[in-house]
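Researcher: For the annotation table, I need C-alpha cells for AAA ATPase domain. Please keep the output clean. Sequence:
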Amino acid sequence: MPNKNPFKASSGTTPPLLVGRDDYIEDFTYALDNGPGTHERTTLITGTRGIGKTVLLNHFGDKARERGWFLFEETATPGFVNRLRDQVYQQIRTLGEGSRKTLKALNLNIATLGGVGATFDTLPDHLPNYTLRMALQDLLNFQKQQATHIRQEPSGILITVDELHYNVLAETRDFGAVLQHLTRDNENIAVAVAGIPSSVKPILASKEGENPVTFLRRTNRVELDKVSTDEVRRGLVIPLDATDKSWDTVALKMAIDACGGYPFMIQLVGDWCFRYSETNTITPDVAQKGIAKAQRKLGQLVHEPALNDLSDIDRTYLLHMAQNEGESSTSEIAAKLKKTVQYANTYRTRLLEAQLIHQTRQGYVDFELPYLREYLREHEASMILDYI
C-alpha cells in the first residue's frame, strides 16, 4: 500500500475528502444543470480564514468542468476584471484557431477592434480596449455557433473570484454590472465569489450617494461554519484508507477534539500526525506531538494574518479576552479598555463580523477561531510592543 501523506495542509488546497459541505455543492450543481435564472447560479461564500471558502470554490469549479463548462478563476486584487477579460480573450483565440471566417462574419464584438477582414489568426496577443462584457458575450456567442454546427448543447461559463475585498469596490461594481447584463439576457453563465465577512460587508452596504453592488446583495449566501464531530472523524479517518496507517482509538479522539470542527485543522492535525508516525498506527504520543505542531502552524497561517487586519484597539480587546479561561463579559472588557460599554461595542461588533469571536449569551463573548486564546497569550508581549 502507498504511504504518501494524504492530508493537504496548505491554505486553499483541496483536501482528500471535503466534509460538511455536501448541501452547498448539491445546490450549486443543481443550478448549473437547471439553467439560467436559478438562484444559486450567483453564490457568495463567506466565512473566517481556514473555514474552507477557497476549497468550496474549487469544488464548484470541478463541477463546472465535469459538464464541459469554461472556467475562469481569479483573486480580487487590483486589476482582476482586466485579468478575467484577458483569460476570456485567450480562450476565444484558442477556440478560433484554424477558422477561416472573418470576425465580422461571425458577428463578434471583437471584429470592431480587429480591423477590416480580421480573422482569429490576425488578432494581436492583447486588446486593451476589449472589455470583459464584450469578451464574455463573444465567447458565449461563438461557442453557441460551434455547438449548433456540431448539433450539441452549448456549454456555459463559470467565473470564480476569491478573496473579495472592499479595496476593489469600483472594480467589483463593474464586474457586477457585466454579470447583471448577461444574466438579464438569460445567458448560460454562473459566478461564485468568496471572502471573509469583514472584507465583504462594506461592499454589500448601501451608503447614500453610492451604488451598491446589486448582484452581490441578491446572491445565494453561503455562510460557512464549523463541521460536526462525525464529519471531522470522517475527514481524519477516510483519507488513511489509501495508506498503510490507521488511528489508535485514543489518538483519534485526541485529534477530533483538537480540530474543534475547524476544517483547516483537520488537514493540519492529520498532516503532522501522519508525518510523525513511524509505525502503521498513529499512537496517542504521536497525536500529542502532531496536535502541538498543528496548533503552531495554525497560528502562523491563520491567526497572524487575521490579527494583522485589525486595529490596535481591536487587538487589545482580544488580548483582554485572552486573560479569561472561557467567556468574557463585554462590560468588563470595556472597563479594561477605559471606554464606555457603548463605545467598546463598536469593536465588539467588528470582531463579531470578522468571525473572530461569537456571543455566548447576552453581554458575553468568546473566541470563535480555535486556539486564538492560546496564540494571544503566547504573543502578548510582542503584540503590546508593536502598539507602542
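Researcher: And a one-line annotation?
Model: The longest strand covers residues 189-195.
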